[in-house]
Write a structure and sequence with these properties.
- The structure is a single chain.
- This protein is α+β, with helices and mostly antiparallel strands.
- It has a domain of 218 residues.
- Helices cover 29% and strands 22% of the residues.
- The strands form four sheets. Strands 8-3-5-4-12 form a five-stranded antiparallel sheet, with helices on both faces. Strands 2-1-13 form a three-stranded antiparallel sheet, with no helix packed on it. It has a three-stranded antiparallel sheet with strand order 9-10-11.
- Helix 1 packs antiparallel against helix 2, helix 1 crosses helix 8 and helix 5 crosses helix 6.
Amino acid sequence: MILLSSIISTFEAELREQYAGSLLPSHLNALAAMKQCRTTHSPVMQAQCEDCVHQDFIPHSCGHRHCPHCQQHESQQWLERQLKKQVPAEYFLITFTLPKEFRVLAWQQQRTLYDLMMRCSWETLNTFAQNDAQLKGRAGAISVLHTHSRRLDYHPHVHVIMPAAAIDTERRLWRTKTGKGQSKKPNPSQSGTGYLFNHKALAKVFRAKLLDAINHVGLALPERYPETWVVDVKSVGNGDKALVYLGRYLYKGVIQEKDIIACKDGQVTFRYQDSKTKQTQTRTLPGAEFLWLMLRHILPKGFRRTRNFGFLHPNSKRLISLLQLLLGVNPNQDLAWLKKRPALKCPCCGGDMRIVKTRIPKVYAIPLSRSDHNPQVASVM
């Protein structure tokens, strides 16, 4: 497997020279972190076996949220939190795409435009839920911002996972929506059969809300932009597979190292799945251009890529628990298929190891020979 850290080491100088006027501090920080992630230059942590005296020194991950090595545990925790809030309703994946004419503005005003996209997409869906004849209440949604296409081009869009359900707070009623010819109790194992809202109507309202919001914050609109925007609505059953898909890119960058298949002659080749044909394709770029392609998707510092709205907001935990109790939903049932975080195993006896010390500078961590019955960290000061 070709490591991203090795690609950065090889092409970083060329990247800095070629894109000197475009690199931001957030890009440079990400490069520095991912370059030393789990390498011989990174700090180490000390692990000790609970059954024997063996100790090991393990390289630290960098912890950067865009590093393909890191944040697996955080992704798992996010997925568990979302699955615990599932409700008995058919779920839909709604995708709001920003037209290409706005990409320059989005790149120049990332924090502002990304925030507006997420807020306007939620406001659009909540408005439709309140006006819908079957729902007539406050909706709930999980929003995730993506800035990349499968080819890793700059392509800002917002994915929203939304149950076809709403809460009427005035009458204290829980309502779900079913399409024509559907059972009132949707089969969570099925997908693609339901109907939520008309995608063309959603696109019109989202367009109007976002244009108004951009004007309100004082940004100049592009000279030309399309009258018709694109919003996609797709049934995803009980939503677990869609959550797994979105969680994959929350904390681990836009590409997995296993998908980098070649690095030679100054070129980097990676593979991806074409969204239309579902066939695996490859793309080859100069090394510096490949790094820049990745860095364009580094989010502004502190910007939250995922947000929960409505009755799925974190401050609605008691409400969700009450709903699950009344509707007979076991929130732990959907967590059974999740893989637990693997334990660190001792190479000597196979027992579990625990971390006893972290962030040890590499220069101070010298593992003694295994013949020593009391290994420790030796100082070289």
